[in-house]
From TrEMBL:
Alphabetical keyword list: Hydrolase, Protease, Thiol protease
SUPFAM superfamilies documented for this protein: Cysteine proteinases
Keyword field contains Chloroplast: no
Family per record: Belongs to the peptidase C40 family.
GO molecular function: cysteine-type peptidase activity
Name the record gives this protein: NlpC/P60 family protein
Residues annotated as domain NlpC/P60: 5-77
Single GO biological process annotation from the record: proteolysis
Keyword Nucleus: no
Highest taxon listed in the record's lineage: Bacteria
Amino acid sequence: MRKGAEIDIGAWTGAQHTKGRVVATGNQKPGDLVIWKRSGSKPDATTHVALFLGDDKILEASPPRNRQSVRISDLTSHGTPYSEVRRVFG
């Protein structure tokens, strides 16, 4: 998820949450970044970024770093609601 289509979105969540433009939560489209933040923290205290695929599915990468680290998951799989949606393309 770091670099594609000749657009560098950064290598960590702190950089990724500044790319593109904010889209209203719930109005995400396939290809948008879905961002989770710590509640009550600084606005840039991100914890996870995933790529929205549509149909409430995301493409994400997270530890452990093995064959299962990159996977398709449910948008609600993290238990807490996502905080922000950013559109980098379009």
